[in-house]
Amino acid sequence: MILDNANIFDGERFHKGSLAFNEYFDEDQTEEKLNIDGLWVLPGLVDTHAHFRDPGQTSREDLISGTKSAVHGGITTVFAMPNTNPAIDNEAMVLYLKEKSKYATANVKIVGAITKGREGKELAEMHRMARAGVVGFSDDGNFLSDAALARHAMEYAYELDLPIISHCQDKDLGSGHMREGWYSTLYGIYAMPDVAESIAVSREIELSYLTKAHVHIAHVSTARSVKLIRQAKKDGINITCDVCIHHLVFTDKDLGDYDTSKKINPPLPTMEDQNALYEGLEDGTIDAIITDHAPYTSEEKEIEFQSAPFGIIGFETLLNEILIVSQGGMEIEMLLKKVTSDPAKLYKLNEGRIKKGLSANFVIFDPDQKWNVSRNSILSKSSNTPFLNKTLNGKVIATYVNGRQSYRRGSGICANSFLCNVLRF
Fold first, then answer.
1. One of 10, 292, 342, 366 is an active-site residue; which one?
2. What is the residue-wise DSSP string for 300-333?
3. Would residue 235 show up in a list of annotated catalytic residues for this protein?
4. Residues 6+ apart with CB under 8 A from 260
5. What are phi and psi of 158, to 5 degrees?
6. 5, 105, 189, 410: least CB-packed within 10 angstroms?
7. How far is Cα 219 from Cα 266, in angstroms, rounded to an integer?
């Protein structure tokens, strides 16, 4: 099939052209052409940090519902973090998820735990999990405070040529419910200081220097952390990082309504911190944008703010939030790179680009169409999003994984005959 007259983002820049594909992207243009003028064709998005709650917490989400939600948002490859119950801390658990992912609608990559049970006491089966195919190691949700154990983990990871993905938050300082500052005082919410993150980031940089391991700092949220990472990169230390899309859209000021669907860890940044995150994206200090998709049931979330768990779902609004950030002055091509080719390159994945010979993972997106975010329109089991019952600009029309349609707008019901034709191929 050939998509003609498309606005194609190839992983680097937009250009007008045609796209031929079957299971792979191809240049053979002998089949029927469909004119999709006005629509964007993007590489399948690559989200390197998400929580499927599978196994053990499947009332919130599972691998099947989670990947349906992912392709609804245009995400074709997603990383499953290991903070499940039980944790993904051994080869058998990795193989369980790999087997279940055969029935998923998106490509699932698995991150193994650094320590058994993510308890920070004893290293997990890192070599065996690497043999089973994990893409990295993390105790996400917990910071591995034992520096000697963290050093040993990095030494093993270096041998295995896999990254340590670090949740940087000092346990003693990181017990608050929002970022410490003027607004936390105004709202009367117990808060955590920005240095709870940057103290941990500083230690990880030093251990990466010592061990030469690739350490990836997850969901960076403070100006001090960005500054430390920028300098570490200049010094040649093998440090990378990502930022959560919600931290680019909201700030601590937005918590004045005490909406628990905006409670996230790390907490929403101050305006000063958010500006530093924008600068970090523009100068390349920040390597990728993630969703940190973290589903919770309404029963868990609809309680008093300081008692509610941290977490926001993010798969289905990722491109909408990218558009929101771009409207604030950030370059759209740079933002799209941070959710396609850049994270793929970071984890050595042959994805995130539209190029002859690569698997046909791509998204057809209408930047002008609006959609209402509701419990009925969301495909996730959970609906803990600050966009609930709001109308957003931009809509995924169809998502293709390995050349096969994994999602199409309207679940097969098309009001527009032209779009029906687009969706049939």
1. 292
2. HHSS-GGGSPP-B--GGGHHHHHHHHHHTT--HH
3. no
4. 301, 302, 303, 305, 308, 384
5. -60, -45
6. 410
7. 7
Residue 419 three-state SS: helix
- pLDDT of 317-333, one tens digit each? 999 999 999 999 999 99
pLDDT of residue 354: 96
Determine the average pLDDT of the residues in 2-30. Answer: 87
User: Is residue 412's pLDDT more than 50?
Assistant: no
Classified as helix, coil or strand, 299 is helix
Angle 76-115-50 from CA coordinates, rounded to 5°: 20
> Do you know the residue count of the chain?
425
How far apart are alpha carbons 106 and 134 in whole angstroms? 16
In the sheet with 164-166, reading across from the earlier edge strand, the strands are: 164-166, 215-217, 239-244, 288-290
CA nearest to 126, candidates 98, 94, 99: 94
CA distance 24 to 61: 30
Which two tokens mark 153?
């983990």
DSSP 135-160: S-B--TTS----HHHHHHHHHHHHHH
Could you please report the per-residue DSSP string of 214-283? -EEE-S---HHHHHHHHHHHHTT--EEEEEEHHHHH--GGGGGG--GGG--SSPPPPHHHHHHHHHHHHT
Enter the tokens of residue 325.
Answer: 């950030």
- Sorted by where each starts, the structural domains of the chain and their CATH numbers stand as 2-41+358-424 (2.30.40.10), 44-346 (3.20.20.140)
Residue bearing tokens 């003027």: 182
Q: How many helices (H) and strands (E) in the chain?
A: 14, 15
Distance in Å from the first CA to the final CA of the chain: 7
Q: Are 242 and 343 in contact (CB under 8 A)?
A: yes
Residue 414 has pLDDT above 80, yes or no: no
pLDDT in tens, 212-266: 999 999 999 999 999 999 999 999 999 999 999 999 999 999 999 999 999 999 9
User: Cα(420)–Cα(425) distance, rounded to whole angstroms?
Assistant: 9
CA dist., res. 243 & res. 248, Å (int): 8
**To 5 degrees, how large is the angle CA 66–CA 72–CA 78?**
50
